């Protein structure tokens, strides 16, 4: 039971972090293209 809760928490955190990183990289890439 506790293991399931921990796994869920970890996967939710991972999803949030990866989406934040993806947004950050997308913005950086768009900014680079905007400079040209």
What attributes does this structure have?
rod-shaped; mainly alpha; 36 residues; 0% strand; 1 helix
Chain-wise SSE layout:
Elements: H1 2-35
Structural notes for this entry:
This protein is mainly α. The chain has one helix at 2-35. The longest helix has 34 residues, at 2-35. The radius of gyration is 16 Å and the shape is rod-shaped. The N and C termini lie far apart (54 Å).
- Tally of DSSP helical segments: 1
Average pLDDT reading: 94
As a percent range, the share of strand residues is: under 5%
Ends apart, CA distance between termini: 54 Å
What's the number of extended β-strand segments?
Answer: 0
Question: What can be said about the biggest beta sheet?
Answer: none
Task: Put the structure in a nutshell.
By secondary structure, the chain is an all-alpha fold.
């Amino acid at each position: 039971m506790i293991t399931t809760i921990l796994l869920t928490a970890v996967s939710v955190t991972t999803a949030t972090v990866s989406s934040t990183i993806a947004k950050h990289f997308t913005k950086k890439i768009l900014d680079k293209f905007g400079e040209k």
